[in-house]
Structure formats: structure tokens, C-alpha cells
Amino acid sequence: MRIQILGCSGGIGDGRHTTSFLIDGDILLDAGSGVTTLSREALRRIDHVFLTHTHLDHILSLPLLLDSVAGERDRPVLIHATDEVLEILKAHLFNWRIWPDFSGIPTEASPFMRYAPLRVGDTVMLGARAFTAIPAHHVIPAVGYLLRGPGASLLFSGDTASHEALWQVANDHADLAHLLVECSFGDDQAGIAEASMHYCSSTLAADLARLRGGPQVWISHLKPGGESAIMAELAAAAPCPVAALAQGQVFTL
Questions:
Q1: How many Cβ atoms from other residues are within 10 Å of residue 236's Cβ?
Q2: Which of 22, 71, 104, 231 is most exposed by smallest CB count within 10 Å?
Q3: pLDDT in tens, the chain (253 residues)
Q4: CA-CA distance, 204 to 245, in Å (whole number)?
Q5: What value does the CA radius of gyration of the chain take, rounded to a whole number of Å?
Q6: Which bin fits 248, alpha (ψ -120 to 50), beta or left (φ > 0)?
Q7: Cβ neighbours of residue 242 under 8 Å, at least 6 residues apart?
């Protein structure tokens, strides 16, 4: 399993792109602005999109992805997400007011996209690749994902504040090679982090003490302009080495 980081920032500007990972060329994990860096040929190859939640920085490219290439495909794109996430998409995005309902065009029998509901704990197998939805603790319904390939596992927290389940899942998988965890704010904005249910430097550093084993810890969703300060705070306080996730980075599982 090859995972390419198309975007991992908490915002845009100066080359930053928001959360989206391309997996083996045919799967997206979230559909933030990073998807806009792909060629049309690459867009045509995407068969599956796994969504963590419906905040705009994680879904903003999805409507345009479908609009750009769906008519050139011979099968629908499958949108994998929890029922709560899918209901938000149906009510507030693919509703003909914001964007056409691609689950019903060109026909309901042969649409450009199909919804593929999953529940927390469900595993979707795509060949030898496994995608398991894990809990997240955010202001709207949200999940993270455990990705398992032939050689190792990778855990992505999604957008989240502190919660026990993330660390339980991490510690339950001896083959976990990489933990991608968000940290959106520095401690000078701890109040905003608490209100928006994101990690800040001190809350993540404290939770990293729960982590057993030796996965490499990568920090995502850093807010633009605050990256250096957040990483410096984590370097000083975290009980294990951490590194900033980078656009263009590739993992192989």
C-alpha cells in the first residue's frame, strides 16, 4: 500500500494544501485542497473516497473531482463514511443548492457516485488493503482510520481532541509503523483548541505518554503560521520524537 500525502495543513496559502491522502492511485482518504494538485488522468483513476468528517477542509475537492471526471468513468465513485457524515453530505452539499446530487445523475440506476455507509469498527477490504474506521472526538461526527497493508499499519487520527480510543487502537497493533495525529494549535491558543475540539501542543504531548511501542509520530493539521512554534513546543514536551507531516511525503505499508 502506497500512501502519498497530497495535503496535510490546517489551511492554505504559500503552497499549503488541506488534508487528502492518495492511496495506490485509486483511493482518497479525505478530499481537501490537496486533490487539486492531481492531473485529470489521476482523478479519473479514483474509485473510492474515505471521509473522516464533513468540515470543508476535508471535503472541498470532492464535488469538483466528481464534476471534472465522473462522466468519463464507467462506474461510480464510492464514498465511504459513517451514516452521520453521509447525511450531512446529502443535506448540505449534494442537495442541488450547493452542488448537484451526483448520487442520482445521470440516472439513479447508474449514478456518478454511490454512498457506502460504514460504522466505527467496520473494516473495508479492498484487495489486500484494510481500512478500519476508529472513533474521533470532534465538534461534529468524525472518525479516524487504521490502514493496514501487507507489511505494516498506519493510524490516522483525523480531526480530534483527546480521547482514549485513539491510543487504545495504536497500542493494540504491534505492526503500527506510523501514527499521523493532528495538532492544530499552539498552547497560546489552547482555548480555541478546546472550543473547536482539536489537539494543542500540551494536550497532545500529555496523550503521547499513553503510546507504547515505537511507531514514528507525524504531526498533521498544523495551522498556517504556527507550524514552527507548535513543533517547538511538542519537541520540548513530548515524551517521544515527533516530526511534521509534509506534503509530498510517501509511506509504504
A1: 9
A2: 71
A3: 999 999 999 999 999 999 999 999 999 999 999 999 999 999 999 999 999 999 999 999 999 999 999 999 999 999 999 999 999 999 999 999 999 999 999 999 999 999 999 999 999 999 999 999 999 999 999 999 999 999 999 999 999 999 999 999 999 999 999 999 999 999 999 999 999 999 999 999 999 999 998 899 999 999 999 999 999 999 999 999 999 999 999 999 9
A4: 15
A5: 18
A6: left
A7: 208, 217, 218, 219, 231, 234, 235
Three-state DSSP class for residue 45: coil
Q: Residue 55 in contact with residue 140, Cβ under 8 Å?
A: yes
DSSP structure class, residue 9:
B
Q: How far is CA 145 from CA 16, 31, 78, 159, in A?
A: 23, 14, 17, 11
Contact criterion met (CB below 8 Å) for 239 and 209? yes
Phi, psi of 55 (to 5 degrees): -65, 145
Task: Return the bridge partners of 168, or none.
Answer: none
Residue whose cell numbers read 465513485: 77
SS3 244: strand
End-to-end CA distance of the chain: 5
What distance in Å separates the CA atoms of residue 116 and residue 80, rounded to the nearest whole number? 5
